[in-house]
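Quick check before the chapter quiz. The format below is the same one you will see on the exam, so make sure you can read both the input and the output lines.
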Amino acid sequence: MGKRAEVCDELLVPRVQPSLVRLQPFIQRHMSRIVAPWVAIAPAILFASGRASAPPERVQLTIATLHAAELTSSRAPGDTTDAPFFVVSIIGPNASSASILSDSAPRSIRRDEQLGARPLTQLSLTGGDSVQVLVSVLENSKMQAADNATIAATSAKTRAASTSEQLDQATRLVAPLVKQGANLLGAVSLLVTNEGGAVYWRRLDCVVSCRVLSGPATTALPATGGQPFASTVELSGNGGTYHLALRASRAP
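Here is the expected output.
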């Protein structure tokens, strides 16, 4: 019975070779060296992958009103209306565009009247993006849809780094339209940024014939459905006086 019990014990409990016993500390030491770096960088990998997958933030820019306090002075006798329109240039990190704002509503306006609200553009910004939006307001009842191609061809490719560069961009952008008889009322530049998921309306700069009456808030834009940020500028080109009210809000 004693020998049979010893045989059973050997079958149930395998013997550990002395060589493996001697190697065990060596194996444990080197395994810890391999595992430790991965443990250290795992949170960073997870954080980076989470950041990369963050969806872009969308911002809706809107023209709230355009009020004519005084009409432009360049007009034919008996002409008591202006016909303002908008040229929008968008310069982002990966693309740029410029166009005349599509508008099916009447553009004719008399002194002390105003144009109602209309969408300006919607921006899409990923983390770290900054987008410059240049808004030029002109007046010309003879503006043609074909002028859009001319505007698109003069779109700037890089964001202006100074006021003088913004002025150069605005001048080159509207030059073909002014040459055809349009009156420039003024131009303003907006800068919108996405800073780690928080969206800011960072700047509102007068570029041509304007002054800021009220600037945007310095805090981040509220979530979708929150109160839009508002700003107002006065445009004074070609003898006119116009008040342009702009809005910015988070979009779904």
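If your answer matched, good. The helical segments are 2-12, 18-52, 147-153, 163-179.
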